């Protein structure tokens, strides 16, 4: 079905494979990437908007933006530039980080971004309208929560960690741009920290009867044992709460350079959301 709009995203570099690894039929139409941990400029975003709408033969853009000050500001400026060329831009913010829900600018957008890209991308490629994508985004935002933990901070471009995490400690509630977490925890075994993070993300999950989509995301150079511990802990916690898990996705989707850490994302998914999640895509970084 011909597209009714262009579905795009973007942000700073250092998060690969986000977003470029998800530009393909069934997900994003296009993306724009800035320097490491830095938003792309408004003119670069506006240029992408003009190019992709011309290529698709549409004049409406739905832009998925992680809720960081630079990204939001530059996408808003780009939307104004695009409007001067006769284009309409609807911006959808990703605010899934439950560690920062109480801050003034709202929760950050972290690993849950890739679930928005998959679900909204499927809808966009099926020819759904911007109003329909906005409605889907509202459904996702009402139920999605993510939480990240780091055992080693990401390195800067000289290979030096951007902050120090002493041995035997973990940074809780980390972002994906090298931000410190909201808390620090001492541990004797890393599994203790991961179980704490799983408890935290389940405690922030909105009530709901629909089954869960679970995403366990490697933030760069996670220890495989930590990924396994997270999966086991999520499954145990869901069983204890009598929650069913419909889909589980594990891998490296949204990174923070070479961070030794992971994030856990949960969301309720009704049958309509699940059908879009299951829709085929050629995006290489989703299928791996």
TrEMBL record:
GO terms for molecular function: glycerone kinase activity. It holds the Pfam family Dak1. GO terms for cellular component: cytosol. Residues 1-286 form the DhaK domain. This is PTS-dependent dihydroxyacetone kinase, dihydroxyacetone-binding subunit DhaK. The keyword Transcription regulation does not apply. Its EC number is 2.7.-.-. It is an enzyme of class 2 (transferase). GO terms for biological process: glycerol catabolic process. The keyword Transferase applies. It comes from Schaalia odontolytica. InterPro entries: DhaK_dom, Dihydroxyacetone_Kinase. PROSITE patterns: DHAK. Keywords: Kinase, Transferase.
